[in-house]
Amino acid sequence: YAREVWTFVNLYSKTRGCNRFHAVLRALDLLRERKEVQARGANIPSFPALEEWVKCETKLGNTTLEAEVAGGNDKLAPIKAWSDAVNAAVKDIVHGVPPFPLVHETLARGQKQANCIVVSQTPAEALEREWTENGIHNFVEIIAGQEMGTKSKHLELAATENFEAQNILMIGDAPGDQIAATENGALFFPINPSQEEDSWKRLHEEGLDHFLAGTFAGDYQQQLIDNFEGCLPENPNW
Questions:
Q1: Which of 11, 124, 193, 222 has its CA 20 to 30 A from that of 86?
Q2: 231 exposed, middle or buried (CB, 10 Å; 0-12, 13-18, 19+)?
Q3: Could you give the CA distance from residue 159 to residue 116 in angstroms, rounded to a whole number?
């Protein structure tokens, strides 16, 4: 049940792509509420210290977490141990996973007429390693991970201070990407979960053209968003 809940939170619901510290709190809540878990008398832990930390910390990552623990917040020590283990597992396991078809071509084309950056809540070390391994790091000017703040803050600092909103396009596969775009008045092209190859094909064949021609906003974007919002539920069906 824990694996099913974790997968739902991180991949198949509207919390897809959220910061891992928000994800673990959501997953624990869902486990605690699940009738099968309750029937087995499982004791699902709670972490009030983590709940408080995510409310006040603007850069949710291992660097700030380590500083918080070092400053005396011992109740976050188990969270730090878990997060360190996640980073180690990702570094050990995630190799040889190429991008979806047409990602390379789309980035190469976009780079010719736009300033491209990575906006993510993944740790920067993992992002830089994976983008370099796949030979796509040279297409972007900045790789912004969780250490640099929220996705919305990334866009604000890198784009909205330098470009008009209609000249900023956020490409993403998570509701958090759409929220970041909306908060900054930017355009949004969704990569639909479980339809990634079709989405990248559409972006490569028509989405970039609409963006560069100034015809992205309006009916075209709304159709994309309507399809995207139907892909992910808010709550599980168990």
A1: 193
A2: middle
A3: 10
Cα 108 off chain centre by: 22
What pLDDT digit, counting tens, does each position of 5-32 carry? 999 999 999 999 999 999 999 999 999 9
The answer to whether the CB of 184 falls within 8 A of the CB of 168 is yes
- pTM value is 0.85
**DSSP secondary structure code for residue 44 in this structure:** -
- Please report the sign of the dihedral spanned by the C-alpha atoms of residue 65, residue 67, residue 72, residue 78: positive
Cα atoms found within 13 Å of the Cα of residue 30, Cβ hemisphere only: 23
DSSP per-residue letters across 63-121 = HHHHHHHHTT-GGGHHHHHHHHHHHHHHHHH--S-PPPTTHHHHHHHHHTTS--EEE-S
Q: Which residues pair with 155 in a beta bridge?
A: none
Q: How far apart are CA 112 and CA 126, in angstroms?
A: 26
**Nearest Cα to 211, choosing from 174, 165, 156?**
165
Distance CA 187, CA 141 (A): 20
What is the spatial distance between Cα 46 and Cα 30, in angstroms, rounded to a whole number?
Answer: 12
Query: Which amino acid is residue 132, in one-letter code?
Result: T
Radius of gyration of the chain measured on its C-alpha atoms: 19
